Amino acid sequence: MKLHPIELSSEKKAQCLANGPKIAFLVTIALLFLTLIPLYYPLPGYASFQFSSSSSQKVSSPTHSSTDDGDSKVVTSDRECDIFTGEWVPNPKAPYYTNATCWAIHDHQNCMKYGRPDLGFMKWRWKPKACELPIFNPFQFLEILRGKSLAFVGDSISRNQMQSLICLLSRVMYPVDVSYTQDEYFKRWHYPTYNFTLATFWTPYLVKAKEADPNGPPRTGLFNVYLDEFNEEWTPQIEQFDYVIISAGIWFSRPTMYYEKGQLKGCYYCFKENVTDLSMYYGYRRAFRTAFKAINSLPNYKGLTFLRTFSPEHFENGLWNQGGNCLRTKPFMSNETQLEGRGLELYMIQMEEFNIAEREGRKRGLHHRLLDTTQATLLRPDGHPSSYGHWPNEKVTLYNDCVHWCLPGPIDGWNDFLLEMLKGEGRKSFPARLHTSNRS
Ligand SMILES: *[C@@H]1O[C@H](CO)[C@@H](O)[C@H](O)[C@H]1NC(C)=O
Ligand SMILES: *[C@@H]1O[C@H](CO)[C@@H](O)[C@H](O)[C@H]1NC(C)=O
Ligand SMILES: *[C@@H]1O[C@H](CO)[C@@H](O)[C@H](O)[C@H]1NC(C)=O
Ligand SMILES: *[C@@H]1O[C@H](CO)[C@@H](O)[C@H](O)[C@H]1NC(C)=O
């Protein structure tokens, strides 16, 4: 049984180990969230220049260069657009589904059901600086994915995006459940008219991981993570998929025992004598490296791999377990906040590991894309469930959820990005197709 840390109920929490790991968990999460209190500085613009050749989704032919003074910029022609840099603008037409028209919304993200009073957070769309990002068109999406398959690989935020996608597509049709297991963490859906298959694979650490003490009290919060071992629950399964979206985040802030070459290498916040202290960044970097290595080494995999970047949390006025909450009802403008601290560090690690993976993949004709949602998501402190992910009297560990996303809500925009990128792939492959057909 696997649970997201913040899905632990309080009774379960009481079963936690008496001292070390529990405290460690609180401390680490606390540290993580502490770094996310917004400060008011202009964005440095790193998201738009770093690794621009692979990270920016270009709407048209890219013609960018960088200066070598360490402060490189994309030189933007008017035919090119970085869709990930922009602002949220009002959209009175949203939302495009509700909790009444879509059954796929996870209960803890069904903010309408739990009486969230302000529904203004649904009424925004992402406006890239230099172009328009079309609102998700479900007909177009299904047409592009006709006869194809798409897998989400990750944790509960990954599932959050998949459920958003099912809801956005529900204007056309609902999928049929064709799961091969009863396990809710490994769902498979099929859209018969389009022969489109959608799947979700639960792997919050991306690599092989086990609870440290399977015979001990359940969900102690301490996991053994085998940083150099593929996770067999998803790696062989994705071989047949045309598109794979991987992501990871908050689980790396839990106490973790890190293994490499089968040996205990050290730990993050385990408070065990004689065990080397390692940072969460150590684990995060290696987990991504191993996950990408797994993907790049699958002999029959021909899919396009997306890295969906880090999803920021928005606790303010306290830590997650000390009354911290997310009560804003409007997005930030890009000049009002910036990614920093842990969020920035995790994001940078993703960029670096993505670039390594991209280079390695290219050697055997595999492509990787960056679904670079972090900046747009950072600007949405208003889109979390807060206390509207459960009934007021319900005992839940994360009373104010400033981690996941209400549906409908901001991460519907992640699927706007996804569709735009898939359309971009079509544009890219058109000359290639012409070329191939000329030769045949
Ligand atoms: C949907 O939200 C409404 C409030 O807007 C609530 O009364 C209803 O129970 C919810 N329905 C479901 C199926 O969650
Ligand atoms: C449906 O798509 C799969 C690939 O996802 C393909 O193998 C299969 O032949 C397709 N079925 C039909 C009936 O077109
Ligand atoms: C830690 O290492 C020291 C020195 O090697 C040893 O004396 C001690 O017993 C070890 N403690 C544990 C819990 O293994
Ligand atoms: C952000 O920019 C807007 C207009 O672009 C301006 O009105 C606002 O004062 C700026 N906010 C900050 C904190 O600089």
Task: Write a brief caption for the model.
With 440 residues, the chain is an alpha/beta fold.
Give a verbal description of the structure.
This protein is an alpha/beta fold and 440 residues long. The protein has one domain. It contains ten helices and 13 strands. The chain has helices spanning 10-14, 20-34, 46-49, 52-55, 138-144, 156-169, 280-297, 341-363, 374-378, 412-439; strands at residues 86-90, 124-128, 149-154, 176-177, 188-191, 196-202, 207-211, 223-230, 243-246, 256-260, 263-268, 304-308, 367-371. The chain is globular, with a radius of gyration of 21 Å. Bound molecules: 2-acetamido-2-deoxy-beta-D-glucopyranose (4 copies). Residues 273-274 line the site of one 2-acetamido-2-deoxy-beta-D-glucopyranose.
What keywords describe this structure?
binds 2-acetamido-2-deoxy-beta-D-glucopyranose; O-acetyltransferase activity; 13 strands; globular; alpha/beta; 10 helices; TBL_N
| Biggest sheet features | 7 strands, mixed
Sheet with most strands: strand arrangement: 4-5-6-3-9-12-13
Q: How many helix segments? A: 10
Query: Shape from CA axes?
Result: globular
Number of domains: 1
Pfam families: PC-Esterase, PMR5N
GO molecular function: O-acetyltransferase activity
Domain Trichome birefringence-like N-terminal: 80-132
Membrane topology: Single-pass membrane protein
